[in-house]
Amino acid sequence: MDYEAAFLRERTARKRAESILEEKSRELHLLNQTLNDNVESLELALRENKFLMHIGRYGLEKPRLRDFLPTIVKDMLRLSDVPFAVYFHFPFDSSQADYRSDLLRNEKNLNTGTASIARSDLDLLACEIEEKVRETRRTHFQTVAVTIDNVTIDTVVALPIISLDYLGGIIILFSQGLTSRQQKEIDMFRAGMKQLAIMMEHRYQEDKLLASYKDIKVANEALKETQKKLVQSEKMATVGQLSAGIAHEINNPMGFIKSNMGTLSGYVDDFVEYVMASKSLVDQALLRDDSLSESAKALETLWQNVDMAFLLEDSKSLLDESQHGVKRILDIVGGLKRFSRQSDHQKEQCNIVSIIDEALNMAHNELKYKGKVIKQIETVQPVMGKSGELLQVFLNLFVNASHAMNEQGKLTVSVEDKENGVQINVADNGSGIDPKHLDSIFNPFFTTKEVGVGTGLGLSISYGIVEEHNGTIDVTSELGVGTVFSIWLPYPDSSTATSE
Amino acid sequence: MRGSVFTNFQEMVEEQFGMACWETLLANCDLPSGGIYTVSENYDDQEIISLVVALSDETNIPVNQLVEAFGRYLYKGLIHSLPPSMRDYPDLWTLLEAVDSVIHVEVHKLYPDAVTPKLVVQEKFDSGVKLYYQSPRKMCLLAIGLVHQAAESFGMSVSITHECCMHEGADHCLLLVEKEQVKQD
User: How far is B161 from chain A (nearest CA, A)?
Assistant: First the structure.
């Protein structure tokens, strides 16, 4: 039997089997490799997702780019295994300084090398790259030869962040060559930067929208305020007309009541004189012992019964009080007439400063116990007005201020040029006006003073006078801090700025 | 060491010295594998050394000479085990450059635990190349045999000289491979 032939056949068979095995192994390897590639690309996709999600946070959580950039750069380092990075931030707001970060190290391969790159070398390199990116405005690749922390760096990738045509930042990655995986990741970073830029743009537009919304809101509030003032002045005008009518109606009967009261007062004096003379006659008749004394007794009883002594005394005081009342009514009516511009003085050139001085002199008695008066007076041009009425306005304000202040009072009167007119501020550090009263203080008859102390006409008259002078009067007040009345009176149109 | 080296060695012994010689070698060597070799496994490096030494004893041929001769024999077996796409090279120099970058890469794909020697073309000249060899097995002679046979397969002959050798204390070998001018057939 030929064993050798059988052996050779077996040997050949084994070789074939081995070669089939190798073929299968090779196939298996290829399959494995495909599988690995798939896993790798899936992992890349996963990382990509995470990275883009992180970038998405910029849109959702709205951090400042300055605070957000380090996070993104650290993400890049971690994802791509690039050892170092540096980033620039050029704030859109030109009042903020540009910023360049220190060298950021990848936390994964943190070898504690002592020989880090010289600061000046890094500066130079960063500047060079910044210039290139500013020029090209696109991702910039460059080969270099530097050593950082004993790691040889030969590739630099610079990713710009360009939003609204503005270079907002650059991220520079320092790498040892670029593997195909790192290439892919850098492509992904580029996409991420574009997305970030779009979000920055959105945020910019959003901020702009918000700003214009705020502007509109402010304008709207100003409009409302003006409307309120308009309503107020309308009301004042109505009240003024009403007051004028009432004042006229009251004035006439009050005229003859006053006159009659005067006459009646004279009559009463005569009556008293006569009664007293009759009384002495009765007293004498009572001493006699005849029929006359009987009549005198009856009269004396009548005197006692009606309490004639009291009647005589009280009649006089009743008349006095009535006459006071009449005078008060006439004062009030006069005030109403002035408020409703029914006065008929002529306007003349008025020196506001001397009017204020006069008013301060007149109020001196009120003010001297209430602290000091501070004057801050600038030279101003004369205004056209009725000096008597203007004097009344200031006197009224000073007296009001003195009522509001205690002994440590401080009344500040300032006069200055403002918007083609004179601005007069009268500020006290008194008790202030309750906010709920602020709207009413210019209304006629409104007062918080005790009955009999004020008529409630002072400020409404002042308001009317200032209106008549085409000026404005405003008040700001804080309880416990003080009150400021601001009056503005315009210069006459013809006399343009020729201040002395 | 890869099983294919052993199976090729076995074939060479059987072809050139007979099956009986192989059996004698196995009997003399007391190998852990018992002489049962397949391509797909790895075997202890020591076994090939034992076998070569035993063959040298048996045939009175010096070990060095045997190793180089085996290198020449091994070439065909190794080239044959490559996938067809990697078998064709235009010349010896291209083949030598492909050893480290292509062929050994392919070996590692199939046998990730294989320990291949470092065999790199370090310098190129008009007349030849300088080869860098480094392996813990220090089998530069096997490499020399392989290169000779490879040259022959391209119809040329080369001279190979050691510029330095791991057997003389260097940490690598440098082999100057030059095309022989005088070619006789």
Answer: 35
Q: Percentage of chain B surpassing pLDDT 90?
A: 63
Catalogue the E-assigned strands of chain B: 118-124, 128-134, 158-164, 173-179
User: How is residue B42 annotated by DSSP?
Assistant: B
Residues A10, A11, A17, A21, CA torsion sign: positive
Q: Mean pLDDT lowest for which of A4-8, A113-117, A447-451, B98-102?
A: A113-117
Domain layout of chain A by residue ranges: 62-178, 348-490
How does DSSP classify residue B112? T
Topology classification of domain B73-179: H-NOX domain (3.90.1520)
Pairing state between β A372-377 and A410-417: parallel
Q: Is B173 exposed, middle or buried (0-12, 13-18, 19+ CB in 10 A)?
A: buried
Cβ A171 vs Cβ A193: under 8 Å? yes
Bridge partner list, A417: A422
Question: Which tokens belong to A386?
Answer: 């009725």
As a whole number of Å, the CA-based R_g of chain A is 50
In CATH, what number does A62-178 get? 3.30.450.20
| B160 conformational bin, left if phi > 0, alpha if psi -120 to 50, beta if neither | beta
Q: What is the pLDDT of residues A373-389, one digit of tens each?
A: 999 999 899 999 988 78
Which of the following CATH numbers is that of domain A348-490: 3.40.1000.70, 3.20.20.480, 3.40.30.10, 3.30.565.10?
3.30.565.10
- Spatial contact of A117 and A147, defined as CB atoms under 8 Å apart: yes
Query: Can you tell me whether residue A313 is helix, strand or coil?
Result: helix
B110/A18 Cβ within 8 A: no
Query: What whole-number distance in Å separates Cα of residue A228 and Cα of residue B58?
Result: 124
Q: Mean pLDDT, to the nearest integer, of A457-464?
A: 84
**Domain layout of chain B by residue ranges:** 3-61, 73-179
**Mean pLDDT for all residues in chain B:** 90
Q: Cβ of A18 and B38 within 8 Å?
A: yes
Cα nearest neighbour of A24 on chain B: B110
Residues 6+ apart with CB under 8 A from A18: B7, B38, B39, B40
Residue in A closest to B11 by C-alpha: A11
With CA atoms as reference, the chain A residue closest to B39 would be A18
Mean pLDDT of A402-419: 89
Helices (H) and strands (E) in chain B, counts: 7, 4
What is the residue-averaged pLDDT of chain A? 85
Mean pLDDT, to the nearest integer, of B30-51? 90
Please determine, for the modelled complex, whether the ipTM score is greater than 0.85: no
Across the interface, whether the CB atoms of B40 and A29 are under 8 A apart is answered: no
How much is the pLDDT for B61?
93
Which tens digit of pLDDT belongs to each residue from A302-339?
A: 999 999 989 999 999 999 999 988 988 887 777 676 65
User: Is the CB of A26 less than 8 angstroms away from the CB of B110?
Assistant: yes
Residues of B in contact with A14 (CB under 8 A): 38
Partners of B109 on chain A (C-beta within 8 Å) are: 26, 29, 33
User: Do residues B48 and B6 touch, judged by C-beta distance below 8 A?
Assistant: yes
Spatial CB neighbours of A197, under 8 Å, sequence gap ≥ 6? A161, A162, A163, A168
pTM for the predicted model, two decimal places: 0.47
Q: What's the pLDDT at A453?
A: 63
pLDDT in tens, A169-194: 999 999 988 888 889 889 989 989 99
Phi-psi region of B118 (alpha: psi -120 to 50; beta: other; left: phi over 0): beta
Contact A175, A79 (CB under 8 A): no
